[in-house]
Design brief:
Growth Hormone, Chain: A; mainly alpha; 473 residues; 3 domains
């Protein structure tokens, strides 16, 4: 999933962390700057790499499935392991796990930048995902543990605003680096950012751990990774080999079995990474269903859009990145306003109207797919899409946190955050069904209409399941 739209519930993950007395920061400003830079590694990677895919495909070869795996190798490991990464940070030390995550991410970024071919690039992207699964939740936990409740709101606001700016600039930066230097520079730019993040956090933060942690759910993490990997492989290869192919069927069936075993393990685990009891709340289940549909629609559409802009409409990478600025700007402006509006009309109204408007934006993009002019062929759909997403994203966090008891808010936030990432993973895996037949332009149109249907379905889920009252899960 492109990080132009941030995953929901980051604020909930920060707020759920209690600050131990020994976690008082050496320097709060350094901690804030370090966590912003650490998170920006994943934000930049998520929003900039999309713009490099058509160029990588042209230079290194490969088919649509190869481009899908460049994205999905990263998203697979991040989505499957982010909950385990958060638990590891609480158990072994948030600062320690953050530094380990940054080190892994940096080494993998270097390998991506030097990769001579697709196999090494895809493998390095998977290692990047492991690093991100460690550093992202650890950076959020460090932020929560370093500030008391009075200062935490301001710190989270600065962190979120900086993350939004980084995400907004990611496509333009990625496109410009690709055109003026090389697509490899998009990965190599992570190295100085990582070094600075380590220095700032190393100087400013104290180590902290959760006082109450059980054993890590490594069996669940392995089963979730294997299951998602097998399903993703099957869906990626199905457009070429067909669903009747023995290997595709084995991948899909094996993935389903692994995911079923994962649910059985989670039911019995002492400290499950996925607390199934949360889903007894209809509102929580509905919020996650809405998240899955909305973020899948956005992730799939944003994967296909750069291919259309660069390969079908003839944009260079810089112009393609700049073309997405209205979407980023709209989200930055509208998200704070949506939070205040939610307090007046309720999350259900916002989470019904927002996805439906986003669906209209996708439909406009599909309907104007044959128009070469940006202002009539791309901008109108992006503007409506930004309006819909801006209305929906902020209230989604509130809906998740209000759907469970206070003691479950940290776990609920983590689950919803992971669902958003897995939604993008599955959507990109399915993108091969629209990219392979009929060419890029036809596939783009079909992808936009499919995204429109998914977003409208998300709005219907919100209308049926979201309610104001806090559950007693």
């Amino acid at each position: 999933m492109s990080q132009i739209v941030p995953p929901p519930c980051d604020r909930g993950l920060v707020s759920a962390v209690e600050r131990p007395a020994e976690a008082r920061p050496i320097n709060g400003r350094l901690v804030l700057a370090g966590t912003v830079l650490g998170s920006s590694l994943a934000f930049i990677d998520g929003s900039a790499v999309n713009l490099t895919l058509p160029v990588i495909q042209r230079q290194l070869g490969g088919d649509a499935a190869s481009a899908q795996w460049i994205m999905n190798a990263y998203m697979l490991m991040l989505g499957a392991l982010v909950l385990a990464g958060g638990a590891a940070a609480d158990r072994y030390g948030r600062k320690r796990v953050f530094l380990l995550g940054v080190a892994l991410f940096s080494a993998a970024s270097l390998a991506c930048g030097l990769a001579p071919g697709l196999p090494m690039l895809i493998a390095a992207r998977a290692v990047q995902g492991v690093g991100a699964a460690l550093l992202v939740p650890a950076s959020l936990a460090i932020l929560g543990a370093s500030f008391d409740k009075q200062a935490r709101g301001q710190a989270v606001g600065i962190w979120a605003g900086a993350g939004g700016l980084v995400s907004a600039g990611g496509p333009v930066l990625g496109g410009w680096l690709t055109d003026t230097v090389s697509w490899r520079a998009v990965f190599l730019i992570n190295l100085p950012v990582a070094v600075l993040a380590v220095i700032l956090l190393g100087l400013g933060a104290r180590e902290s751990r959760s006082a109450q942690t059980g054993p890590l759910d490594w069996i669940g993490a392995v089963l979730a990774t294997l299951g998602l990997a097998a399903v993703t492989w099957g869906l990626t290869e199905a457009p070429t080999l067909g669903f009747g192919d023995t290997a595709v069927l084995a991948g899909l069936l094996g993935g389903a079995v692994a995911l079923g075993a994962f649910l059985m393990v989670e039911r019995r685990a002492a400290s499950p990474m996925l607390p199934l009891a949360l889903f007894r709340s209809l509102a929580f289940s509905g919020a996650n269903g809405l998240t899955l549909l909305l973020y899948a629609a956005f992730g799939g559409a944003l994967f296909v859009l750069p291919f259309d802009l660069i390969q079908a409409r003839g944009y260079d990478a810089t112009r393609a990145g700049a073309a997405l600025l209205p979407l980023s700007a709209g989200l930055i402006v509208l998200s704070p306003l949506a939070g205040r509006l939610t307090a007046m009309v309720g999350a259900r109204t916002m989470l019904t109207a927002g996805p439906v408007l986003a669906g209209l934006g996708f439909a406009i993009l599909g309907a104007t797919a044959t128009r070469a002019d940006y202002w009539t062929g791309v901008f109108p759909g992006l503007a409506v899409l930004a309006l819909g997403l801006g209305i929906a994203v902020a209230p989604l966090t509130d809906a998740v946190l209000e759907s469970v008891a206070d003691s479950y808010q940290g776990a609920a936030s983590g689950v919803n955050n992971a669902v958003a990432r897995i939604a993008g993973l599955l959507a990109v895996a399915l993108a091969g069904f629209v990219l392979t037949p009929g060419g890029v332009a036809a596939g783009y149109r079909l992808a936009m209409f499919a995204a429109a249907a998914g977003a409208v379905a998300a709005g219907l889920v919100g209308a049926v399941t979201i309610r104001r009252a806090k559950d007693t899960t």
